[in-house]
Amino acid sequence: MNCSVTIVAVNLLLFTNFLYAGDGSATGMSFLKIGVDAASSAMGGAAVSNSSDASAAYWNPAGLADSDGMNIMFSNQEWLAGSNNQYLGLSIPTSKFNLGLTIALSGVGDIERRDERPTVEPLGYFSSNSLAMAFSAATNLNGNLKIGVTAKFLYEKIHIYSANGFALDLGLIKTLNFLNLKSALVLKDIGSMTTLNNESTALPTRITGGLSGGFDKGASHTFNWAIDVGKYLDSGSFVRLGGELVLNDRLSLRSGYRRNSENSSGITAGIGIRLNRYSFDYAYLPFDFNLGDTHQISFGIDL
After folding, report:
1. Which domain holds residue 89?
2. How many C-alpha atoms does 255 have within 13 Å on its Cβ side?
3. Mean pLDDT, residues 237-245 taken together
4. Which of 23, 122, 187, 287 could bridge 236 with an S-S bond, Cβ 3.0-4.6 Å?
């Protein structure tokens, strides 16, 4: 095995985990931690109890049971160190189950390949790419309890080395009988990967509980809020909370706070615009360690 490639691969694994794993975990496929839609990200990523569009397949598959029509969503985010993340999701209601089909991509290119000898020019360039393809199903067991499951195929490639695997998400949402509250619990990324360049890959398995609610502030104004608290099974915990003011069902003003979540602890913000069947959302996401800021946009269509 080429020594220079081995050194680069190991360093890239460590660097990638640092970029995504603000909680201190040493898992692989860490892009699975990144929120997939700008609306939820702007609310600090608090979404396991209140997502019901195509993004619910990521946050909590049980949320798909609340969908009463087809929805398609595309999201793009310029992440750190030149990496880029995309998400495409489709929710499909049926008579018994509501279904979801999603694909998530993350990649970074033009990575310099070097060995232990210092040189002015790199030995070459390569890329790193990750993929998650998922199928979700959710149903309403009774008037107040919804359950859902997501099955994922995972793939990761760094230079010429690759690994693949499978994972499951299991979730439920309970509608409470007071104050329009919803509670949720979801266990995400239960599974395994094959080795990558003889290095084992542990998935970022985590359990998250959430609570959300909302109330009208007038004839045309609504305020929604949500809070999530979670724990990675091999590392630390995280907290996410956010609020949303909806004006005339067209304009949404959002803000949130997140603690120990993907290298970020602090305020998030964003805006959403809805015109009939179409929605546009934007999120501003600052990061710790002087890593800078990122921006996320999402487009949705009710079909």
Report:
1. 3-302
2. 3
3. 95
4. 23
Above pLDDT 70, what percent of the chain? 81
Task: Tokens for 188, please give them.
Answer: 């995400």
Secondary structure (3-state) at 73: strand
* Cβ contact 201:31 at 8 Å: no
Q: In whole angstroms, give the CA distance from residue 84 to residue 62.
A: 28
Give CA torsion, residues 58, 278, 94, 228, to 10 deg: 30
- Residue 73 neighbours by CB under 8 Å, 6+ apart: 37, 53, 54, 55, 87, 88, 89, 90, 298, 299, 300, 301
CATH (domain of 27): 2.40.160.60
- This prediction has a pTM of 0.85
* Sequence-ordered list of residues with C-beta below 8 angstroms from that of 158, at least 6 positions apart, any chain: 9, 12, 13, 126, 128, 196, 197
SS3 category, 162: strand
